Amino acid sequence: MSLFRNRELQKVSDFSGLKWGKVYPTDIDAFMDINDDFFVFVETKYDGARVPYGQKLALERLTDATNIPPSRMSVCLIASHNDEGDIDMGAATVTEYRFNGSWREPSRKTTVRQAVEIFLVKMEEMVKSRLTVFK
After folding, report:
1. What does the buried/exposed string (b/e) look like for 73-85 if buried means 16 or more CB atoms within 10 Å of the residue's CB?
2. Is the pLDDT of residue 25 over 70?
3. What is the overall mean pLDDT for the chain?
4. Which residues contact 100 (CB under 8 A, 6 or more apart)?
5. Which range, 62-71, 79-88, 94-103, 123-132, is most confident?
């Protein structure tokens, strides 16, 4: 099932009126807030294209600023897709991710969906260990 709403009304945003020096706004392809405990930022690029320096720096800073262990965990996933039409975000392949202050590459082929599931398990483990400390 697709979550498209008002597809015929979707427009492209023009950021040219929001330039300060060399700085323009950036977009984020997906953001998930899971119970105010786990934030996931996702940026997808076609066929492995690189994320521009400024956009990657913004994603890095946002991810690091919202990662507040042990109460909150944030991850940024950079993913590649080959879709010509609509992008299946869950099936996009993670090419790198930011977690705990560093960029890393997955050790094996991982989709965005699989990566979120992996980090949800990490989040649950973090919550369990936090509860054990306070017993």
Report:
1. bbbbbbbebeeee
2. yes
3. 88
4. 67, 69
5. 94-103
Domain ranges of the chain: 26-133
Give the pLDDT band of residue 7 (cuts 50, 70, 90). Answer: low
Average pLDDT over residues 67-72: 86
Look up residue 52 and give its two tokens: 């521009």
Residue 58 is encoded by which pair of tokens? 């913004």
Question: Pick from 55, 62, 53, 48: which is nearest to 101 by CA?
Answer: 62
Is residue 64 a contact partner of residue 72, using CB atoms and an 8 Å limit? no
Pair type for strands 93-99 and 73-81? antiparallel
Q: Tokens 């913004």 label which residue?
A: 58
